[in-house]
Amino acid sequence: MKKIQSLGLGTAAIGRPHYINIRQQKGQDEFALSEFRNQGHDLLSKAYAAGIRYFDTAPGYGMAEQLLIDWVKEKQDPTIELATKWGYTYVANFDKNATVHEMKEHSINKLNEQWKQSQKLLPYLTTYQIHSATLETGVLENQEILHQLAGLKNEHHLKIGLSTTGANQVGVLKKALDIEVDGVQLFEVFQITYNVFDQSAASVIRSITSENKRVVIKEALANGRVFPNPKYSNYSEAYLQLSKLAEKYSVGIDAIALRFCVDSVPVFKVLSGASLDQHLDGNLKMNSFSLDDQELQLLKSFKVEPIKYWNERKLLNWH
Length: 319
Prior knowledge:
The protein has 12 helices and 12 strands. It is α/β, with parallel strands linked by helices. The chain has one domain: TIM Barrel.
């Protein structure tokens, strides 16, 4: 059974008050920035106390990156690994009524601008990633950007990576695996959407890890869609079986969904997106059991076509 170190913490939910998901509980009417910052700081410390040492952030996550810059100085622990990304700018200014939350820009100017802030995460920064790389932005063909990333890799001994989003993430991953700068493969870390419903990247995940590169799983809870919801009658059988497994192992459905990712494909980390103590506690219970082959095969049977999964995701709101 994989140990607690298989779980990392993604910081999107502690860096900004909105996230694309299905709301599981009523949000607060009032938002206090200082209180929100303190809650984020406390959650980082709670994750650390529970054994988590891998933290993923981005400038697009509101205050999350600065929160980590400040928090990690208190720890002075060289076993901590920080990963950040460039390419999204947070523009909602913590306004709960904002209609636009982030803006994507895969340009050399944005890379250079965001690196000035992100480099403050050094020496704990081990991983620098393109945020939601796609074929459409042309970022994987931009030689100026690729050479700049290679330069940062060499100068600061970083692992260069990317995160993927969308129905064509397998195509993006395959293209990235072939990219070399001066005869050396550029990308070593691949942050991939993978869960009970979108299993499209399973084969490429195995290829990546066979080359001793890192796979980090995001959206293991499918933005909340793994939890029983009458809006998604197409998942009714999946909800039934997930609930049965949760009862069997005396954990929540979140732990089952996270455990599925760890047991079904070889991964370096699967990210928790917890923003509250009780959510983190529930996620950590993934370390108390393992799924057997029969259970894994059952959960694998609930996969859906990527285009269906991502079209469904596009309809989710910011909460």
